[in-house]
Every structure is written in C-alpha cells, then in structure tokens.
Write a structure and sequence with these properties.
The chain is an all-alpha fold. The chain has one domain (1-39). Helices cover 74% and strands 0% of the residues. It has one helix at 2-30.
C-alpha cells in the first residue's frame, strides 16, 4: 500500500507541475491572461 500511495503522490505532483507549465505557456502564447483553454 505504501508503494501505491507514493505513486499516487508522484503522479499528482507531476500533473500539478504539468498543469502549471501548460497554464504558463498558455498565458505566454495567448497574452490575454486566460491560459485555461487546454482544460
């Protein structure tokens, strides 16, 4: 069970990093401040 929780935490943190990176790139490319077009 410890392996499962560790994997879940890793996946969640990776998704958070990817999400913030996508939002940052979206704001850079659009320039309107709405970088939520991917979700």
């Amino acid at each position: 069970m410890k392996i499962i929780t560790a994997t879940l935490l890793l996946v969640i943190s990776l998704l958070g990093i990817l999400g913030t990176a996508f939002l940052y790139l979206g704001e850079l490319t659009q320039g309107k401040g709405e970088g939520i077009y991917l979700f």
